[in-house]
């Protein structure tokens, strides 16, 4: 019941305070969280767990926002806090006057960074939505490079007698060296780990060891050269995971997952307990002015930084950060044990006020973890902030997400815009073409894991079916091809397939799998300035024109049928009368040469339904009329419906004979026009 209200990190700090108080009450000296123990043994498991299981898609989609918060936001916090604390020290009386600008800037750089351990401990309990979680957690991971650079920079400057402009420029450049150098070290060790896992198929037991070994080597190598160890661990975890998981067995994957979770959980517990114990055991120097000013300016700097940066970021984001999101980001800026360990590392020789700095740091940590950590859950519920979906995404959602990725990449290609999806697609192509062949063993480098697993399952069931010798129990997963190859006798005689060898069948399957998986194989590179003409376009246009002319002709004939005739005995009037009332119409005696009219059975009463396409005079066919036709006069035949799938324009019928076409031209011709006079133009206006 207590853990539902109070975060686990707060309870662990309380346990640490009680343990430290008991040890001190007994008369022993409580142990203090040494920085070497923290940075070498307790921090790496937590960062490796976060980096190895990092949700890569939301992280890469929001990488620009995360970097702005991590780099610009941390620099703003450090310099804003350091400058204001220097002003407080100058105005704060005799106890603070001796603290210079560099010492305050160093203190600002230590206290300004958001702590990944504290953020993980609090945000995983409140189940905040994925966007906010990755923004705050990504910022806490990537601001390590800024913190390391500023910390070492101001520590070095404190020992200088005079700081020149060249030192400041070199310090600025060192930021890129520390951050990019850490990432490079992590990528190198990640590739080595992936390459090593390619050859571990015979010794599955030690597969998890390589993941932990190479990740820890990446962290130690980065820290050895004062590079960012946290960024090296994240890069190593992100790079090695897809290739390592394709090579290792399922049991090894489960071992890595649960061992990392257990290891990071134990480290997190020890960090917060040691934080409580160190609070009791350490030397403290309390100064109300300095401590309260630090706490107040930390909150002000965080809120101002988030508001200004979000206003700038929202100009470029499609999904804007709402005021609720901004509040959670600002409120989730928790401080933790990294700040305490960096403060503990300060040298008394250059920083005589180390105890006061540690006291202020512990106060800020306790305030953010206890007050903000305990109140963030009710505030999330109060503001109705979107929570994280507990269920995994369905295959349908996965397929549509990939489809939209391909669609957006195609749109970017057509527009000539090299955006996020374009470069992601380039990277995926390079990965499939070159990297996977080197780092993944066997067939798994060529086909997705799901298809490989299905193929393996299908083969296994087919083998079991053959061994059992019965066709009665056919598993549903076995495909038709497998059954045909196992028992060709069951097929009907007229559909006997040619017998294929197993090698040939495997080759055909491989060709099908590799080609069907190429969902977006680009044959030509299109550009809006150099579009190639389609060779089929002209033929298609001719076809459309022919259809259009046929429709116009049919419309003209229908209009002709509805126009009243001038003569009473004209064929048009006869057709109209026979359509309205066929019994009341008595044909003339000389009705031998009257045309045969086909009437649509859908509505035989309407004159519009008369179809002229099959109209033909009996005398025009070249045969003498029969006596039955003489007696009947006008013969009405039902139009046969066209077979489905035939084209009424392009399929030749009985009405396409030359005599029928002459008849159609005859009927559609309105007759001779009066001769134009001399003054009139040959083609009248308006036509």
Explained architecture:
With 687 residues, the protein is mostly helical. Among the domains are: 2-383, Up-down Bundle (Na+/H+ antiporter like fold); 401-460, no CATH class. It contains 25 helices and 3 strands. The chain has a 3-stranded mixed β-sheet. The termini are far apart. The relative contact order is 0.08.
Neighbour order of strands in the largest sheet: 2-1-3
How far is it from the N-terminal to the C-terminal residue, by CA?
90 Å
CATH architecture of the domain at 2-383: Up-down Bundle
What fold name goes in the CATH topology slot of the domain at 2-383? Na+/H+ antiporter like fold
Helix share, percent = 55-70%
Overall outline:
globular
Instruction: Give the topology string: H per helix, E per strand.
Output: HHHHHHHHHHHHHHHHHHHHHHHEEHEH
Low-pLDDT sequence parts: 472-493, 519-526, 602-635, 638-652
Helix count equals: 25
CATH class of the domain at 2-383: Mainly Alpha
- What would you call the quaternary organization? single chain
Structural Rg:
42 Å
Summarize the entry for a quick read.
The protein is mostly helical and 687 residues long. Helices cover 63% and strands 2% of the residues.
């Amino acid at each position: 019941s207590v853990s539902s209200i109070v975060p686990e990190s707060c309870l662990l700090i309380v346990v640490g305070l009680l343990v430290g108080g008991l040890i001190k009450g007994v008369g022993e000296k409580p142990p203090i969280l040494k920085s070497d123990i923290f940075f070498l043994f307790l921090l790496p498991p937590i960062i490796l767990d976060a980096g190895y299981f990092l949700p890569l898609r939301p992280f890469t989609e929001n990488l620009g926002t995360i970097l702005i918060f991590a780099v610009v936001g941390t620099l703003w916090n450090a310099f804003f806090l350091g400058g204001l604390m220097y002003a407080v020290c100058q105005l704060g009386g005799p106890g603070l006057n001796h603290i210079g600008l560099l010492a305050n800037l160093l203190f600002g750089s230590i206290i300004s960074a958001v702590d990944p351990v504290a953020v993980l401990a609090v945000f995983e309990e409140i189940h905040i939505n994925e966007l906010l979680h990755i923004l705050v957690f990504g910022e806490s991971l990537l601001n390590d490079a800024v913190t390391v650079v500023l910390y070492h920079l101001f520590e070095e400057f404190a020992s200088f007698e005079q700081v020149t402009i060249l030192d400041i420029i070199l310090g600025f450049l060192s930021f890129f060296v520390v951050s990019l150098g850490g990432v490079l070290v992590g990528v190198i060790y990640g590739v080595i780990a992936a390459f090593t896992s390619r050859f571990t198929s015979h010794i599955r037991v030690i597969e998890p060891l390589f993941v932990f070994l190479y990740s820890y080597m990446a962290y130690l190598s980065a820290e050895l050269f004062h590079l960012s160890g946290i960024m090296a661990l994240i890069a190593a975890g992100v790079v090695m995971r897809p290739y390592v998981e394709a090579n290792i067995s399922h049991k090894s994957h489960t071992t890595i997952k649960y061992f990392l979770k257990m290891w990071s959980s134990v480290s997190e517990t020890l960090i917060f307990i040691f934080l409580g114990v160190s609070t009791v055991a350490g030397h403290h120097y309390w100064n109300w002015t300095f401590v309260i000013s630090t706490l107040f300016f930390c909150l002000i700097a965080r809120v101002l930084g988030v508001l200004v940066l979000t206003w700038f970021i929202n100009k470029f984001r499609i999904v804007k950060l709402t005021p609720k999101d901004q509040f959670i980001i600002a409120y989730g800026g928790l401080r933790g044990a990294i700040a305490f360990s960096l403060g503990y590392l300060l040298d008394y020789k250059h920083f005589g006020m180390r105890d006061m700095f540690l006291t202020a740091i512990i106060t800020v940590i306790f305030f953010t973890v206890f007050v903000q950590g305990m109140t963030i859950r009710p505030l999330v519920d109060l503001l109705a902030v979107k929570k994280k979906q507990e269920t995994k995404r369905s295959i349908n959602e996965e397929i549509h997400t990939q489809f939209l990725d391909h669609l957006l990449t195609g749109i970017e290609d057509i527009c000539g815009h090299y955006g996020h999806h374009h470069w992601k697609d380039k990277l995926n192509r390079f990965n499939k073409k070159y990297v996977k062949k080197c780092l993944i063993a066997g067939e798994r480098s060529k086909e997705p894991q799901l298809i490989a697993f299905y193929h393996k399952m299908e083969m296994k069931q087919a083998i079991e079916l053959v061994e059992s010798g019965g066709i009665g129990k056919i598993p549903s997963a076995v495909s038709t091809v497998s059954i045909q190859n196992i028992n060709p006798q069951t097929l009907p005689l007229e559909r006997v397939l040619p017998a294929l060898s197993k090698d040939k069948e495997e080759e055909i399957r491989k060709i099908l799998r590799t080609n069907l998986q190429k969902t977006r194989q680009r044959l030509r590179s299109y550009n809006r300035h150099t579009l190639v003409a389609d060779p089929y376009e002209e033929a298609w246009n001719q076809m459309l024109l022919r259809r259009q002319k046929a429709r116009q002709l049919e419309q003209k004939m229908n209009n002709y049928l509805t126009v009243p005739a001038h003569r009473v005995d004209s064929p048009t009037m006869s057709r109209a009368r026979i359509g309205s009332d066929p019994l009341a119409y008595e044909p003339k005696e000389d009705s031998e040469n009257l045309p045969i009219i086909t009437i649509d059975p859908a509505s035989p009463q309407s004159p519009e339904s008369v179809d002229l396409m099959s109209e033909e005079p009996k005398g025009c066919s070249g045969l003498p009329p029969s006596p039955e036709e003489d007696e009947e006069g006008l013969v009405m035949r039902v139009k046969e419906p066209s077979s489905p799938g035939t084209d009424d324009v392009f399929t030749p019928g009985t009405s396409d004979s030359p005599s029928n076409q002459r008849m159609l031209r005859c009927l559609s011709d309105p007759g001779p026009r009066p001769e134009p006079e001399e003054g009139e133009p040959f083609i009248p206006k308006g036509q």
